[in-house]
Amino acid sequence: MAYNILIVDDSALTRTVMERTVRMCGVEINEIRTAEHGKAALQALEEFWPDIVFCDINMPVMDGLKFVEEVQRSDEWRDLPVVIVSTEGSETRIEELRRNGVQGYIRKPFAPEDVAAMIQQVLGVNNAS
Questions:
Q1: Cβ atoms of 7 and 18 closer than 8 Å
Q2: Top-confidence residue, 125 or 21
Q3: pTM of the entire predicted model
Q4: Which CATH architecture has domain 3-123?
Q5: 29-35 β-sheet, strand order
């Protein structure tokens, strides 16, 4: 199965690095799209159906937490797996994110193995390595 992935981060460099990292994970990719903030990500969801979203927390226009709230309010997108990718990372913060519907958390800077493991965990893909 080929997967669609949405990467949401205000840093163009981080979006590029994450996209390259995802492509190296050994998972068959159909399409990867990117967005520079949560509002752009919501607009992307109107025409693109991702299997997983990797999302930063701190972004202008609409931050990652507000994006997750909007996704959770939507009947259509409530079950969409969102993985937070951020420098923020206290255990309390991560637990709060999980209670709010986030499927996983990757701390920046990330290693390719972290991304591969998260894809495997969230999507149940065995060949991510």
A1: yes
A2: 21
A3: 0.91
A4: 3-Layer(aba) Sandwich (3.40)
A5: 29-35, 3-8, 52-55, 82-86, 104-107
